[in-house]
Amino acid sequence: MKLVLIIFTFLLAFQISFAQQRNEDGPYKDYFETGELKSEGQYLNGKRDGKWINYYESGQISKEYSYSNGNYLKMSFKSFYKDGTLKKEIKIEDTYMVSIGYYESGNLKYKRKLDGGFYKEYREDGLLEIEANYVKYDLNGVWKLYHENGKIAWQVNYLDGYRNGGYKQFYENGQLKLEGVIIKEKKKGVEKRYTEEGNLEWKGYYNNDKIDKTWTRYDSNKKKINKIKFEEGLTANSDQSIIIEPTQVPDGVFEKVPLFPGCESIYGNSARKNCMSTAIAKFVNERFNTNIAINNGLTGKQRIAVIFKIGKDGKVFQVRARAPHPALEKEAIRVIKLLPQLLQPGYQNGKPVIVPYSLPILFQS
Hints:
Layout: E1 3-5, E2 9-10, E3 26-31, E4 37-44, E5 47-55, E6 61-68, E7 71-80, E8 86-93, E9 96-102, E10 108-113, E11 117-122, E12 128-135, E13 138-139, E14 141-146, E15 152-159, E16 162-170, E17 176-183, E18 186-187, E19 189-194, E20 200-207, E21 210-218, E22 224-231, E23 234-235, E24 255-256, H1 269-287, H2 291-295, E25 301-310, E26 316-322, H3 326-337, E27 346-348, E28 351-353, E29 355-364
Antiparallel strand pairs: 1-29, 2-29, 3-4, 4-5, 5-6, 6-7, 7-8, 8-9, 9-10, 10-11, 11-12, 12-13, 12-14, 14-15, 15-16, 16-17, 17-18, 17-19, 19-20, 20-21, 21-22, 22-23, 24-27, 25-26, 25-29, 27-28
C-alpha cells in the first residue's frame, strides 16, 4: 500500500477545526471551563455557516468572522482588545483586500495588502515607521525603517523572505552611516562606515557574517590612521581603545516558521514551510504502518486528520488525530510524536511562540 500525505498548512489558532466529523445543523456554542461562553455560530449541512463570534472570559467579543458553506470569508474578520476597542479588521479598499491593525488608542498601527503587496507600519503618533513590500507572504525588495523625525534610518534588501543584497544605515540628519552586503542572511564582502559629516571612517570586510581581513580607519583627509587585522571575527589587536563591533542588520520579518532538521540551507518562510512539509511527509511515509487498516477490516480510501503543536522549545506536543478507526488514530499519534526536535521554534516579533499545524493523511487499503 502506498501512503500519500497531503502537504500540511500552517493554521491560525482560531481557524483550527479538528473535525472530519459532521456537526448537527443549527446553533453551536462552546464554553470555557469556568462556564462562560467561549464561541458561538451555526452549522448548515454539517458545515460552518454565517457569522461566528469568539469571546474573552469577561464576555467581551474577541473575534468576529464568517463562513459560507464551510469556507472562511476573509473580509468578514475583525478582532478586538479586551476593552472592546477594534484591534484588527480586513476590508476592501479600491479593488483589493487590506488588513488594518490599530493601537488600543484607536490610532492606525499598520496597513497591509492581503496576499501580497504593500505594507506600512506607523508609530502611535501617526508617523510612518516601516515600509515594505510582500510577494504573497514573503518580503521582497527594499524594507525601510524610519527615524522619529521622518528621515530614513535603514534600507535592507530582501529576496523571497530573507535578507539578500545591500543594506544601508543613515544618521538622523539623513547622512549615510554605513553600507554593506548581506547574502542569504549573512554579511559578506566590504562594509564602509561614515562620520555624521559624510567622511569615510572605516572600511572592512565580512566573511560568513564574521568580521574578517583588514579593517582600515581614515581621518577626515582620507588618510589611513589605523589598521586592524581579523580572522573569523577574532583579532590580536592590542589597542583596547579601538573596538569594532559587527553591524546588527535589522530583520523586518516579524513571523518566522519553525526550522526542521535538514532545512537549514533553505531561506524564507514559504520555502522553509515547503521543506518541512516534504521532510515530514517522508518521515511519516517511512514509519506509518498501513497494515493496521487491513488488520482492522478497513478497505478503500482511509483519511486521517492530525493536528499538533510545535512548542517554544521546538518540540512537538498535543498531538491529536481523527480517523475511521481508533487504531489508525493511535498509529498517527505515535508517528508524529517521533518527529525530531526542531532546530528552532516559530518566532513572532523576535520571541518564540507555539505554532499549530494540521496534517491530513490519505492512503488506500
